[in-house]
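2024-03-11 09:14:02 INFO worker-7 job=invfold-0412 stage=load source=structure_tokens
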């Protein structure tokens, strides 16, 4: 063998050895990386350090966010002053037997540290016993200090604990669209229920069908149900700007309405309540007649000479009306220059005067229009 053949053989052996060595190194690197990858993703590899282990007692952090808004603040402020009013109407004996006592309920709100509670007249009207249930469930005896049927306001007095007193706001500055909050006890069971809505309108009037209208009401879409009557309507400052009084479900045409709730403006309720707390009753001007309202339908049915007014059914003895020689059958059509019509009910027009005022009364008698003057008296507490 020549030296050239020997040199070629050494070169081939060297190249093969280097190649084998490089391949082994590369294969080892790949195997090592594969092992690391398997250890990361395979939770069954022995001695692996886990990503998370319950045995380490790692604490679980929960964020307890304190949700507080002007609404919750208002409710917290006034809620303790809101009460559930429960009354007992005595049963009556009729040809069908004894009807038994009837339980009625509504809502109310403390307006004085002396224990005075503001509610609706219709909540306590005709009751013989009245109790209030505080927001903490405590029950206290209450007495009816006085009521005013025409504003639907009543004031109660509680001699026990007064947990809180509500702040009274100015209802004259309310605007449609303003957020309001109603608190009360719908159906008498769901005590201190909170609902939220807006002022839908102000200055609304509702015909009671008894010869007068409840006027200047606040309309709201905050949910008001039976049992909410007498409860407060709040603004976002936590001030009482109204006393919830009624809802309208049926418009009379067969249509069913939703979201038509009404409240007595606080400025009206405050005036009435203050006088009741002072005198035990609200002073109203008094003429001394019983009457039947006249509408176009009534006028057509009985062939009356006017479409609007009031038909006098009785003149009370020793009253301003008897002193002015009003008679049964007279039809009052005007007080001073205010003509009685669809928007000017007799009682509402009368209540624009004060006891002692001299009023010109225009009336129809035997088909003739006559006028006289009456000095109004003061209504009695009853």
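2024-03-11 09:14:09 INFO worker-7 stage=emit residues=382
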């Amino acid at each position: 063998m020549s030296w050239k053949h020997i040199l070629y053989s050494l070169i081939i052996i060297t190249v093969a050895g280097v190649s084998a060595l490089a391949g082994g190194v590369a294969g080892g690197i790949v195997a090592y990386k594969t092992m690391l990858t398997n250890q990361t993703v395979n939770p069954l590899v022995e001695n692996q350090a886990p990503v998370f282990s319950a045995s380490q007692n790692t604490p679980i952090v929960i964020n307890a966010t304190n949700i507080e808004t002007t609404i919750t603040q208002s409710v917290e402020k006034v809620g303790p002053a809101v009460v559930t009013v429960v009354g007992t109407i005595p049963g009556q004996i009729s040809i069908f037997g004894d009807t038994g006592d009837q339980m009625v309920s509504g809502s109310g709100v403390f307006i004085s540290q002396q224990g005075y509670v503001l509610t609706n007249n219709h909540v306590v009207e005709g009751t013989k016993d009245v109790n209030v249930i505080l927001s903490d469930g405590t029950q206290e005896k209450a007495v009816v200090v006085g009521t005013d049927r025409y504003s639907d306001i009543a004031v109660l007095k509680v001699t026990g604990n007064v947990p809180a007193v509500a702040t009274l706001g100015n209802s004259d500055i309310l605007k449609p669209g303003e957020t309001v909050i109603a608190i009360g006890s719908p159906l008498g069971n769901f005590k201190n229920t909170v609902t939220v809505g807006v002022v839908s309108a102000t200055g609304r009037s509702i015909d009671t069908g008894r010869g007068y209208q409840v006027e200047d009401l606040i309309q709201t879409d905050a949910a008001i149900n039976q049992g909410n009557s007498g409860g407060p309507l709040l603004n976002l400052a936590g001030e009482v700007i109204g006393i919830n009084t009624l809802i309208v479900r049926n418009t009379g045409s067969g249509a069913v309405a939703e979201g038509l709730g009404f409240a007595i403006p606080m400025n009206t309720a405050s005036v009435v309540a203050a006088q009741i707390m002072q005198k035990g009753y609200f002073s109203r001007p008094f003429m001394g007649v019983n009457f039947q309202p006249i509408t176009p339908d009534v006028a057509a049915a009985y062939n009356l000479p006017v479409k609007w007014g009031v038909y006098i059914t009785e003149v009370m003895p020793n009253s301003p009306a008897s002193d002015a020689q009003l008679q049964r059958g007279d039809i009052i059509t005007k007080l001073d220059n205010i003509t009685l019509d669809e928007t000017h009910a007799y009682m509402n027009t009368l209540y624009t005067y004060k006891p002692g005022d001299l009023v010109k009364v225009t009336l129809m008698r035997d088909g003739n229009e006559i006028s006289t003057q009456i000095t109004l008296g003061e209504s009695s507490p009853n």
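2024-03-11 09:14:09 INFO worker-7 stage=report msg="The first helix runs from residue 3 to 41."
2024-03-11 09:14:10 INFO worker-7 job finished
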